[in-house]
Amino acid sequence: MSDSKFWDKAHAAAAKATWAYLATADGNQPKVRVVRPAFEGKRVWIATGRTSAKARHIDKNPRVELFYQIGAEMIHLTVTGKAKFVEDLAEKKRIWNGKVFDYDLAQFWPGGPESKDFGLMLITPDRVELTSLPEMTTGQKPEVWRASRK
């Protein structure tokens, strides 16, 4: 399958889900939280408090995994990669004003993208896996995209 077809399927799957689970690490202890990510091409954005526990974890260890379980079809989408916080105000404004997220960020940061605690996390995937429970139970291998395939 071509990269563009894979990403079309991944975007379609993610669009069916509102929430995903983000795993970070606090030392050697994994931590999992519910987040509301947004895909933009091959990048994933998460808006969060810049002083949140997940932000502190990522500042120490950028390795993350994001997992979506989608709908009655039990589609599984897993994004493994590195996260970082974007501090560039022009990029924060671009994402904010571009309506990349499907909810109003101002409900959490009424001061807009300049809000001191507005954290814009970027996940750059190394690996993305797409499968479903029915496929897994019949032994089918997941579809996998790796950054090295570019």
User: How does the helix and strand content classify structurally?
Assistant: alpha+beta
Q: Per the principal axes of the C-alpha atoms, what is the gross shape?
A: globular
Pick out the low-confidence regions.
none
Tell me the β content: 35-45%
Radius of gyration: 16 Å
Intertermini distance: 13 Å
Helical residue percent band: 10-25%
Helices and strands in order, then pairings?
Layout: H1 3-15, E1 20-26, E2 29-35, E3 38-40, E4 43-49, H2 53-60, E5 63-70, E6 75-86, H3 89-97, E7 118-132, H4 133-137, E8 143-146
Antiparallel strand pairs: 1-2, 1-5, 3-4, 4-7, 5-6, 6-7, 7-8
Structure description:
The chain has 150 residues and is of the alpha+beta class. The chain has helices spanning 3-15, 53-60, 89-97, 133-137, and strands at 20-26, 29-35, 38-40, 43-49, 63-70, 75-86, 118-132, 143-146. The protein contains 4 helices and 8 strands, in the order H-E-E-E-E-H-E-E-H-E-H-E. Strands 1, 2, 3, 4, 5, 6, 7 and 8 form an 8-stranded antiparallel sheet that branches. Strand 1 (20-26) and strand 2 (29-35) form a beta hairpin. The mean pLDDT is 92.
